[in-house]
Specification:
By secondary structure, the chain is α+β, with helices and mostly antiparallel strands. The protein has one domain (4-86). It has two helices and five strands; from the N terminus they run βββββαα. The chain has helices spanning 64-70, 84-92; strands at 4-9, 11-17, 20-23, 28-32, 51-55. A three-stranded antiparallel sheet has the order 1-2-3. The longest helix is centred in the C-terminal third of the chain and has 9 residues, at 84-92. The model has no long low-confidence stretch (mean pLDDT 93).
């Protein structure tokens, strides 16, 4: 199976799939139950089967000025932003 890990600060700030980055700020991530209903972070339990949805952030947040306030370094991570679409391609081997 796959292991999804998330750093939560009210929202999913950073998400890893099998210990590889999948989504980083400012891009967005949410979890859904099998019936399509959203899961709040307080509903999550270790070992749950969930569906993840990632989305690119608006372009303004992907600029150098936007990343200053909402990029990975702003949240204490020691790496630069990589767009979600590039991370997904990398994980899929494309």
């Amino acid at each position: 199976g796959l292991t999804l890990r998330s750093r939560i600060m009210n929202e999913h700030i950073m998400v890893w799939l099998n210990n590889k980055p999948l989504v980083m700020p400012p891009d967005l991530f949410t979890l859904l139950r099998d019936d399509g209903e959203p899961l709040t972070n307080t509903d999550l339990r270790e070992g749950m089967l969930v569906n993840g949805v990632a989305a690119k952030a608006p372009d303004v947040w992907r600029t150098p000025a936007g990343l200053k306030y909402f990029g990975p370094r702003h949240f204490g991570f020691d790496f630069d932003y990589v767009p979600v679409e590039e991370l997904v391609k990398e994980l899929l081997g494309r």
